[in-house]
Specification:
Two copies of one chain form a homodimer. By secondary structure, chain A is mostly helical. Chain A folds into two domains: about 55 residues, no CATH class; about 80 residues, Arc Repressor Mutant, subunit A (Orthogonal Bundle). Helix content of chain A is about 55%, strand content about 5%. In chain A, strands 1-3-2 form a three-stranded antiparallel β-sheet. Chain A is globular and about 55 Å long. Chain A starts with 16 loop residues before the first helix and ends with a helix. Chains A and B meet through helix 1, helix 2, helix 3, helix 6 and helix 7 of A and helix 1, helix 2, helix 3, helix 6 and helix 7 of B. Chain A binds a DNA duplex through helix 5.
Chain lengths: ~160, ~160
DNA sequence: TACAAATATATGTATATACATTTAATGTAT
DNA sequence: ATACATTAAATGTATATACATATATTTGTA
């Protein structure tokens, strides 16, 4: 169940994809779509990284903090976090360690299964997220370039693609 | 011109996004779209990585090789390659070094501007790409889950989003 | 010409990542 | 109960990456 269509041989300057893409001779729209998804994700990731850097956390660390906040107080194990991360990474343990060093998370050993370690977000962690939320709200409209209908359509197609 | 809407607090298991996504209470379809793009790109990247590993090259290295092949014999500088890469990375130099070690590329110093280094793909590099092409062709239909019309629509929306 | 600014590439360094292995706790079959 | 497999988390190690800086060359300008 692999997907192996990756056509990168066309010239693509980061900032000019939208222009270039019209001139290209991609073998097909599908190939172009794969490239477009990877490219757009990289573009989004870049923005995110630059923004979060001001708060001294990586996108991965931010991702984990959001997962923890989403738990609304319920603990979640290291494994649980790993499964929910955007980039499946085998380093959830070390990643959480970094967050602990920054006093943003805490570890609690499960009494019923002492192999497991429950992770919770600290008050400081929640405050950091709140701070980031506020800053992000101002910028949210930047994403207004597509309509809600288009966003829905985008989601539908991406889901189908992976489905 | 940043994009800062990243809602990750919903539970998302890699293999089950398509199920989970229907149950989620994302703030909006737009937020969901950002997550969906990042997630799908990660999913695509994973497939790619596992496949390419059998040929002992990384996705980034593969990306560079395709760019070089796309040059159809014309040389391209390190900087030129860097601009065209999917993941803007400041390490094009070292990346190309790895390819050189594997005899897949060669460096040629430009005579008209001796700061520049022209890179070309070797016969061995082209052979490797050919080999990968053949293996990929068998799998291409896997990407047939969306129609060409949908692929076009996907491209249109992604372009608009970045535009 | 001389000399500062700009450009292309390479490198130093700290951190992040992938992948394999280890450690500890639990489950299961005999 | 004992032995073996399984699971959760942590760690070792090689490689990759980001970011800053260095080096060499070219360009622009007084």
């Amino acid at each position: 169940m692999y997907i192996h269509i990756f056509v990168f041989e066309i010239l693509l300057t980061q900032m000019e994809l939208e222009k270039e893409i019209q001139q290209t001779n991609f073998k097909s729209q599908k190939h172009k779509a794969v490239l477009n998804i990877l490219f757009t994700a990289s573009w989004l990731g870049c923005q995110q990284q630059r923004f979060l850097k001001e708060h001294d956390i990586s996108p991965q660390q931010y991702n984990v903090l959001r997962i923890l906040r989403g738990q609304k107080g319920n603990p979640i194990t290291v494994n649980g976090i790993q499964e929910r991360m955007i980039d499946r990474s085998s380093n959830a343990s070390r990643l959480i360690d970094k967050l602990k060093e920054k006093k943003l998370t805490e570890r609690v050993i499960c009494e019923n299964d002492r192999r497991q370690v429950d992770i919770v977000i600290t008050k400081l962690g929640l405050e950091l997220l709140k701070e980031i939320d506020i800053e992000m709200e101002d910028e949210e409209n930047t994403f207004g370039k597509i309509t809600i209908k288009e966003a829905e359509e985008l989601n539908r197609i991406l889901d189908k693609l992976r489905g």
